[in-house]
Specification:
The protein is 9% helix and 39% strand. It is mainly beta.
Length: 277
């Protein structure tokens, strides 16, 4: 407010010369709502679009590996192209009701190794979803997230939006038998996530793009146990941050997408973990 008042006074003093100088508009933050988000039976998720996808490709739903209907994958396990008829409730932009039900044809990818992610291929294309429901998929950012970025964690399960910033990145996040790498840490307060928010898209509040997928929080202050992740640095030092939440980056999903929105783990540069041979 002070800066704007000073600007008005300066313009008055200097006169018409400054009036001829075109104003530079500040970047307008994205209006983040529930558009593109879905509710699963046990988690949250979102309809996402990799950078290489086209309108007529079958759409993808992003959630967590630990949200799979078959249960949590074992450490080292990677699931690819497994048939699925799972359904997802597509939310209205205000999150108060459902626009309709989307259905999966298969799990194209799922793991809790290095990351915690699941990707479902739907029976509908991006164009069909937009035509029928007026909803555009959320774009997957194709670059690493940046510390300090304002973010929104949009939970379709609870119909709630959490707001905080990217605090930083964790070398390794350990929870029970699972290890995740380069995890996003949330700032406090604002993103004290709860059960059911798992799989929520983490959206850059400036661009509206998905930068991560929400996955865990240290609930009880315990060290490296289930629901109590701990941070482990490159030297092996362990740190516990009670009530701090975390997410898994999603930019590198783009490195594995072929034309037709196909996940190709053998693609040059693909960074998603591969099944053990």
């Amino acid at each position: 407010m002070v800066n704007r008042l000073l600007g008005v006074l300066a313009a008055t003093v200097i006169g018409a010369a400054l009036a001829a100088v075109p104003a530079v508009a500040a970047a307008k933050p994205a209006a983040v709502d529930f558009s593109g988000t879905v509710k699963l039976s046990n988690c949250s998720g979102s309809v996402v679009r990799p950078a290489a996808a086209s309108d007529n490709d079958y759409a993808l739903v992003l959630s967590n590996g630990h949200c799979l209907e078959s249960g949590m994958p074992s450490p080292g396990q990677v699931i690819v192209n497994k048939a699925s008829s799972r359904t997802f409730s597509l939310l209205t932009p205000n999150g108060q009701s459902s626009l309709g039900t989307l259905r999966a044809s298969k799990i194209v990818y799922g793991t809790m190794t290095t990351t915690d992610v699941s990707l479902y291929q739907l029976t509908s294309t991006y164009a069909q979803i937009r035509s029928q429901y007026g909803i555009k998929a959320l774009d997957l950012q194709d670059t690493h997230p940046v510390a300090g970025t304002p973010i929104k964690v949009v939970s379709g399960y609870w119909k709630r939006i959490y707001s905080c910033n990217v605090d930083g990145f964790v070398h390794e996040l350990h929870e029970s038998d699972w290890v995740w790498k380069d995890s996003v840490r949330y700032t406090e307060p604002g993103c004290e996530i709860i059960g059911g928010t798992s799989g929520s898209p983490v959206v850059d509040a400036n661009t509206g793009k998905v930068v991560a997928v929400n996955n865990t929080i240290n609930e009880d202050g315990q060290e490296c146990t289930l629901n109590n992740p701990c941070e482990v640095d490159a030297s092996g030092n362990v740190k516990v941050l009670p009530n701090v939440g975390y997410a898994q980056e999603t930019y590198y999903i783009n490195t594995c997408v072929d034309p037709g929105n196909k996940i190709n783990l053998n693609k040059a540069g693909c960074q998603l973990p591969k099944p053990s041979r």
